[in-house]
Amino acid sequence: MDTLLHSQTLDGATYHAKQDTSTGGVARNIAEGIYKIYGNVNLISAVGNDQNGTHIRGLLPAHCTSSIVTLGNCPTASFSVLLDRRGDCLLVVGDMDAHQAITPEWIKSHAQLMQQSPMTVIDANISEAAMTTVFEACLQHNRPGESD
């Protein structure tokens, strides 16, 4: 996968680098760990209708992904980091637009998911209003909720 960075401070040269790709998302990693230990978790997130979205959905069983929105008009969120030889961060570029699909209205229309699952994990890239709505629904159904 190529990543095109637009910046006026870089000189346009090609720099030798090594690339490593991993399935990230702190919330997704937490949800996967909870699933492996306890068997059920509710992950509230969004992915694109693309190869990365399919891969992410495939890491958890279907009953744990029912609250992941799949978007046809937006790619799965991505996060690219450029590190120097010491591993220090030089540049971070992220496309998190997919998470705008998680709105308070969407959460309210899917509140039963928080009632049906013993724990809900949310992606911290959703809006503050959406987070508040999730926590209110979790409290209403006497369920714990965690954010990354």
Q: TL;DR of this structure?
A:
The chain is α/β, with parallel strands linked by helices and 148 residues long. The chain has one domain: UDP-N-acetylmuramoyl-L-alanine:D-glutamate ligase (3-Layer(aba) Sandwich). It has helices at 26-38, 51-58, 104-109, 112-116, 128-140, and strands spanning 42-48, 68-71, 78-83, 89-95, 120-122, 145-147.
The end-to-end span amounts to 27 Å
> Tell me, what is the CATH class?
Alpha Beta
On the 0 to 100 scale, the average pLDDT is 84
Q: How are the strands ordered across the major sheet? A: 2-1-5-6
Care to count the β-strands?
Answer: 6
Radius of gyration over C-alpha positions, nearest whole angstrom? 17 Å
Largest sheet: 4 strands, parallel
Number of helices: 5
User: Structural class given helices, strands, pairing?
Assistant: alpha/beta
Could you name the CATH topology? UDP-N-acetylmuramoyl-L-alanine:D-glutamate ligase
Percent helix: 25-40%
InterPro entries: PfkB_dom, Ribokinase-like
Keywords: Metal-binding
GO cellular component, one term: cytoplasm
Protein name: Carbohydrate kinase PfkB domain-containing protein
Report on this structure.
One of its GO terms (biological process) is phosphate-containing compound metabolic process. It comes from Anopheles dirus. The longest helix has 13 residues, at 26-38. The chain has helices at residues 26-38, 51-58, 104-109, 112-116, 128-140; strands at 42-48, 68-71, 78-83, 89-95, 120-122, 145-147. The two termini are 27 Å apart. The protein contains five helices and six strands. With 148 residues, the chain is of the alpha/beta class. It has a single domain (26-143), classed as 3-Layer(aba) Sandwich (UDP-N-acetylmuramoyl-L-alanine:D-glutamate ligase). The strands form two sheets. The protein has a four-stranded parallel β-sheet, sandwiched between helices. Residues 1-8 have low confidence and may be disordered.
